[in-house]
């Protein structure tokens, strides 16, 4: 086989066969195919797309390019969740214990973050003592015993995707639905998922700006999932404003604890119940999404989800008293500042990505891979879109261990609009299954 023939085939809008795709990914991973040929291929795919057979073949070829986590020693259906990324997305911290509380094993490998805040792993490290580096054997033991463990990534998973993603980043080929879909699905499958729940975000703070784009991505991933025998469901959810009220590592841990106690922010709670129902249902709890949801709601009310959270934190060395006294246990910021409303009215816009960047400027996120996180840094949004506000009332509280500069305050003021009228955004646009 020759790569030039495959490039020309795709250029002429013909489909590639499974064996051609396998050959291409194998040889690209082994550095036998140069970046310039793969970037021509990525551009041809960008313009001409891929059908479901090609996307599924690409997904599995990337899965097979590296290590695959074997979760078969864990009893039950291993359901993983993936979010396409947003601002202040605290769902994993809530979902892991919540879904485990109804008996579904949650064996989660998470990453560190680049951007607005840390990833789930960074957030968990805000809990003193919490250990994210666990051997594969211990990981399996923890899930079998407590139904939940969240650890850092280990092993060489999907090296083909790492190489391709870096190449796409510099060749204008990131925004191709078949390439995004197979990239995401390959990582979940290599991490051992039997079933997958996807939270595809849409809006200003998301990768997919329109509901139509988000829907196309969601449907593409669900189709791949079916083709490769991983039951897959997706939610299209709003990211026109940050999720919940807290952005920042400690602040989000506290928000997750509030949510597990049944008094978290309305939007975060609802999204966790929607995603959690899908995870539980795919795992075999209840005969419908509604039945699965009722069980989750029950465990938020009766304290079982919070109990699982405590067990999970303690099992990984963390201080479980964080659940009862988060303010005493979590890192605290030396400096705080309130940003107040300059006029009265209703909050009509909160530009999610810019508010996320403000949190990063305070120290909550990494600008580069080497940046040090300030686990106490971040911000708390007091007013969400649609809320009434009086001039002088607090809009946002900022937290940091370095002195808070005026440019962060200005960024907040400039990115929260107050008008006479405001429409509350729809949180869940669609369920795709
Ligand atoms: N996220 C991924 O994991 N892969 C992509 O290709 C795009 C976004
Ligand atoms: Ca949040």
UniProtKB/TrEMBL annotation:
<dbReference type="Pfam" id="PF02885">
    <property type="entry name" value="Glycos_trans_3N"/>
</dbReference>
<dbReference type="InterPro" id="IPR000312">
    <property type="entry name" value="Glycosyl_Trfase_fam3"/>
</dbReference>
<dbReference type="InterPro" id="IPR013102">
    <property type="entry name" value="PYNP_C"/>
</dbReference>
<comment type="subunit">
    <text>Homodimer.</text>
</comment>
<dbReference type="InterPro" id="IPR035902">
    <property type="entry name" value="Nuc_phospho_transferase"/>
</dbReference>
<dbReference type="GO" id="GO:0004645">
    <property type="term" value="F:1,4-alpha-oligoglucan phosphorylase activity"/>
</dbReference>
<dbReference type="InterPro" id="IPR017872">
    <property type="entry name" value="Pyrmidine_PPase_CS"/>
</dbReference>
<dbReference type="GO" id="GO:0009032">
    <property type="term" value="F:thymidine phosphorylase activity"/>
</dbReference>
<dbReference type="Pfam" id="PF00591">
    <property type="entry name" value="Glycos_transf_3"/>
</dbReference>
<dbReference type="InterPro" id="IPR036320">
    <property type="entry name" value="Glycosyl_Trfase_fam3_N_dom_sf"/>
</dbReference>
<dbReference type="GO" id="GO:0005829">
    <property type="term" value="C:cytosol"/>
</dbReference>
<protein>
    <recommendedName>
        <fullName>Pyrimidine-nucleoside phosphorylase</fullName>
        <ecNumber>2.4.2.2</ecNumber>
    </recommendedName>
</protein>
<dbReference type="InterPro" id="IPR017459">
    <property type="entry name" value="Glycosyl_Trfase_fam3_N_dom"/>
</dbReference>
<dbReference type="Pfam" id="PF07831">
    <property type="entry name" value="PYNP_C"/>
</dbReference>
<keyword id="KW-0328">Glycosyltransferase</keyword>
<dbReference type="InterPro" id="IPR000053">
    <property type="entry name" value="Thymidine/pyrmidine_PPase"/>
</dbReference>
<keyword id="KW-0808">Transferase</keyword>
<dbReference type="InterPro" id="IPR036566">
    <property type="entry name" value="PYNP-like_C_sf"/>
</dbReference>
<dbReference type="InterPro" id="IPR018090">
    <property type="entry name" value="Pyrmidine_PPas_bac/euk"/>
</dbReference>
<comment type="function">
    <text>Catalyzes phosphorolysis of the pyrimidine nucleosides uridine, thymidine and 2'-deoxyuridine with the formation of the corresponding pyrimidine base and ribose-1-phosphate.</text>
</comment>
<dbReference type="GO" id="GO:0006213">
    <property type="term" value="P:pyrimidine nucleoside metabolic process"/>
</dbReference>
<feature type="domain" description="Pyrimidine nucleoside phosphorylase C-terminal">
    <location>
        <begin position="346"/>
        <end position="419"/>
    </location>
</feature>
<comment type="similarity">
    <text>Belongs to the thymidine/pyrimidine-nucleoside phosphorylase family.</text>
</comment>
<dbReference type="GO" id="GO:0006206">
    <property type="term" value="P:pyrimidine nucleobase metabolic process"/>
</dbReference>
């Amino acid at each position: 086989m020759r790569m030039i023939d495959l490039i020309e085939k795709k250029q002429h809008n013909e489909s590639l066969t499974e064996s051609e795709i396998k050959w291409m990914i194998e040889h690209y991973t082994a550095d036998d195919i140069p970046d310039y040929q793969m970037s021509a291929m990525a551009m041809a795919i960008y313009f001409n797309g891929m059908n479901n057979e090609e996307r599924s073949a690409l997904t599995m070829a990337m899965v097979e390019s590296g290590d695959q986590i074997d979760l078969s020693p864990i009893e039950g259906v291993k359901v993983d969740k993936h979010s396409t990324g947003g601002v202040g997305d605290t769902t994993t911290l809530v979902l892991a214990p919540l879904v485990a509380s109804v008996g579904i094993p949650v064996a989660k490998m998470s990453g560190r973050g680049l951007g607005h805040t840390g990833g789930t792993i960074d957030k968990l490290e805000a809990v003193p003592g919490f250990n994210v580096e666990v051997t594969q054997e211990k990981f399996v033991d923890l899930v079998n015993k407590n139904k939940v463990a969240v650890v850092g990534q280990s092993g060489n998973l999907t090296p083909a995707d790492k190489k391709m993603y870096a190449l796409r980043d510099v060749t204008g080929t990131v925004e191709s639905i078949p390439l995004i879909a197979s990239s995401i699905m390959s990582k979940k499958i290599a991490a051992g998922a039997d079933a997958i729940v996807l939270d595809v975000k849409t809006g200003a703070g998301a990768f997919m700006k329109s509901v139509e784009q988000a829907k196309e991505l969601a449907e593409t991933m669900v189709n791949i999932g079916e083709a490769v025998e991983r039951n897959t469901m997706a939610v299209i959810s709003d990211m026109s404003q940050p999720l919940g009220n807290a952005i920042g590592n400690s602040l989000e841990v506290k928000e997750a604890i509030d949510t597990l106690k049944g008094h978290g922010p309305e939007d975060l709670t609802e999204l966790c119940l929607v995603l959690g129902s899908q995870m539980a249902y795919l795992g075999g709890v209840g005969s419908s999404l509604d039945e699965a949801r009722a069980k989750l709601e029950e465990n938020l009310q009766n304290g079982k989800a919070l109990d699982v959270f405590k067990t999970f934190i303690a099992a990984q060395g963390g201080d479980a008293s964080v659940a009862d006294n988060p303010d005493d246990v979590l890192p605290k910021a030396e400096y705080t500042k309130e940003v107040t409303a300059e006029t009265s009215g209703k909050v009509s816009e909160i530009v999610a990505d810019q508010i996320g960047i403000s949190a990063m400027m305070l120290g909550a996120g990494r600008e580069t891979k080497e940046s040090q996180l300030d686990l106490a840094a971040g911000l708390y949004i007091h007013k969400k879109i649609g809320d009434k506000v009086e001039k002088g009332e607090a809009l946002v509280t900022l937290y940091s261990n370095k002195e808070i500069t005026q440019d962060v305050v200005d960024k907040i003021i400039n990115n929260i609009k107050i008008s006479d009228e405001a429409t509350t955004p729809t949180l869940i646009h669609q369920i795709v299954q």
